[in-house]
Amino acid sequence: MSYTLADIAKKIGAQVQGDANCEITAIATLTDAKNGDIAFLANSKYSAQLATTKASAVIVSATDAAKCHTNALVMGNPYLGYALVAQLLDTTPKPAINIHPSAIIDDSVTIGDKVSVGANTVIEAGVSLADGVTIGAGCFVGIGAQLGANSTLWSNVSIYHGVEIGENCLVQANTVIGADGFGYANDKGKWIKIPQLGTVIIGDNVEIGASTTIDRGALGNTEIHNGVILDNQIQIAHNVVIGENTAIAGCTVIAGSTEIGKNCVIAGLVGINGHINIADGSVFTGMSMVTKAITEPGVYSSGMPCLPNKEWHKTNARIRKLDSITKRLKAVEQDLSALKR
């Protein structure tokens, strides 16, 4: 693929500085770029690299454009420009092309136009595959599941019975959607399984990373709304609801029946308790533990940053003494109060 800077500028909403006919064939970092590549500067701490880059062009802000010795595409958000150019120059192959003869597809499956199914995939009765659906090798799609137009499953994805996935969704390899939630009743020490009778409903334009698990509802459904992006290895328990355009990073765990609002940002390794509500626009930094409802948007943190081992042991020893220190402090306050009388 090859595009002129003028072509790219039109597609990403940028202004050309330099040779509009410069040909671009790939995208790279400022340090690795060579002739024919386009790079980007989205973080000012790398601005010194503008002087040495061998890129044929760089996506920059108006502030940094004057420092650029080569051709440039100038726009307000260079990182967005990078994303759009990466889409334009994307060389990722499709997970499947056409329908492989080894795929096992029940006769009752509804198949739209331009559907592709990879080798050794199993698609059970009553499934609906809308136009442009692509399913990679080794996938399983259970009874009555629905995949919306232009949605893609990479290899070895398991979609359980009755799951609904909207349009333009992307599910990475080894993800499981619709497995049983963790529901059990205790009978005198013996665990009795509670069948999970709901399903999972996923909206449009949702992206789900590799090896993520989304459990079906116990009663009612687990819901992932439009525009949500989920990283790898996330656990979403039964009856969780995630609002539009929320982003969740890897290894986060969300317990059952929690409702997360719109436009939230949840970093990696966050643990969120069950049966609570999270306000729209909430942000949680890495390794936060959320035990109570969040009613106001804002940035929330918990956990303790890494310390040198000796310093950590000292801090930990002091933490263990907090209870006794608190009791002594209360006693001192009471003595001071008595003296003032």
TrEMBL record:
What's an example Gene Ontology biological process for this entry? Answer: lipid A biosynthetic process
State the coiled-coil residue ranges. Answer: none
Give the CDD domains listed for this entry: LbH_LpxD (cd03352)
**What EC number(s) has UniProt assigned to this enzyme?**
2.3.1.191
Q: Where is the active site?
A: 238
Q: Which PROSITE patterns match?
A: HEXAPEP_TRANSFERASES
User: What's an example of a GO molecular-function annotation for this chain?
Assistant: N-acyltransferase activity
Q: Which UniProt keywords apply?
A: Acyltransferase, Lipid A biosynthesis, Lipid biosynthesis, Lipid metabolism, Repeat, Transferase
Q: InterPro entries of this UniProt entry?
A: Hexapep, Hexapep_transf_CS, LpxD, Trimer_LpxA-like_sf, UDP_GlcNAc_AcTrfase_non-rep
Query: Which residue range or ranges hold the UDP-3-O-[3-hydroxymyristoyl] glucosamine N-acyltransferase non-repeat region domain?
Result: 22-88
One Pfam family hit: Hexapep
Give the family, as the similarity comment puts it: Belongs to the transferase hexapeptide repeat family. LpxD subfamily.
How does the record describe its quaternary structure? Homotrimer.
What this protein is reported to do is described as: Catalyzes the N-acylation of UDP-3-O-acylglucosamine using 3-hydroxyacyl-ACP as the acyl donor. Is involved in the biosynthesis of lipid A, a phosphorylated glycolipid that anchors the lipopolysaccharide to the outer membrane of the cell.
Q: What is this protein called?
A: UDP-3-O-acylglucosamine N-acyltransferase
* Organism phylogeny: Bacteria, Pseudomonadati, Pseudomonadota, Gammaproteobacteria, Alteromonadales
Gene that this sequence comes from: lpxD
